[in-house]
Amino acid sequence: DAGVTQSPTHLIKTRGQQVTLRCSPKSGHDTVSWYQQALGQGPQFIFQYYEEEERQRGNFPDRFSGHQFPNYSSELNVNALLLGDSALYLCASSFGQGLGTEAFFGQGTRLTVV
Amino acid sequence: GNSVTQMEGPVTLSEEAFLTINCTYTATGYPSLFWYVQYPGEGLQLLLKATKADDKGSNKGFEATYRKETTSFHLEKGSVQVSDSAVYFCALSEISGGTSYGKLTFGQGTILTVHP
């Protein structure tokens, strides 16, 4: 089992550009969540996708958007990049709902905006 | 809203020392509580969890007990090893309409360094 895989691992973009990050969930998982982890901070929830729909959203602007495909993989898109968007972006997958549902995390994509 | 507060780090210990990392939370309802660990250059891994009051989660010698009366979930280990050096995150999963969809709220993380 490959677990949760994210691509690319590192990315450098210029302010104002757009970026797309990709995530393949762990086999058997149907839910994908995205988190932003700034340096020295805990991850912050961006949004969650289930059945190709955005189910929950954190306190992030509309510049952050996503998509989930029929095979459950997901993309995170960020438009009009700001320097403050530099962070580690983590994808987490899970299955089912209820107390104690475990999220499995990928290694993340390190985005640097210059 | 929901929040998680961890003790400030970094924490530096000698091998075989006792470890405590404090975690307190604020939440509506009765969330599930988690400890995640992040080793250098890696993503987060679940260390342990507890889903109701007085539950004790345990794994790899680490333990934490869900204390509803003090809204705490402190992480402990009796004898740390160099390989335990990592960043530890306390987290809760939120409840919406009686259901948890798995959205996690994290603390700021505590860096643990263990010296031989």
Keywords summarizing the entry:
heterodimer, A: 114 residues, mainly beta, 4-stranded antiparallel beta sheet, B: mainly beta, 6-stranded mixed beta sheet, 0% helix, globular
Describe it.
The complex is a heterodimer of chains A (114) and B (116). Chain A contains no helices and eleven strands. By secondary structure, chain A is mainly beta. In chain A, a hairpin with a 2-residue loop joins strand 5 and strand 6. The model of chain A has no long low-confidence stretch (mean pLDDT 94). Chain B has strands at residues 3-6, 11-14, 19-21, 23-26, 32-38, 44-50, 56-59, 62-65, 75-77, 86-93, 104-106, 110-115. In chain B, strands 2, 5, 6, 10, 11 and 12 form a six-stranded mixed beta sheet that branches. At the A-B interface, strand 4, strand 5, strand 9 and strand 10 of A face strand 6, strand 10 and strand 11 of B.
Can you lay out the helices and strands and say which pair or pack?
The complex is a heterodimer of chains A (114) and B (116).
Chain A: E1 5-7, E2 10-13, E3 19-24, E4 31-37, E5 44-50, E6 53-57, E7 64-68, E8 74-78, E9 87-94, E10 104-105, E11 109-113
Parallel strand pairs in A: 2-11
Antiparallel strand pairs in A: 1-3, 3-8, 4-5, 4-9, 5-6, 7-8, 9-10, 9-11
Chain B: E1 3-6, E2 11-14, E3 19-21, E4 23-26, E5 32-38, E6 44-50, E7 56-59, E8 62-65, E9 75-77, E10 86-93, E11 104-106, E12 110-115
Parallel strand pairs in B: 2-12
Antiparallel strand pairs in B: 1-4, 3-9, 5-6, 5-10, 7-8, 8-9, 10-11, 10-12
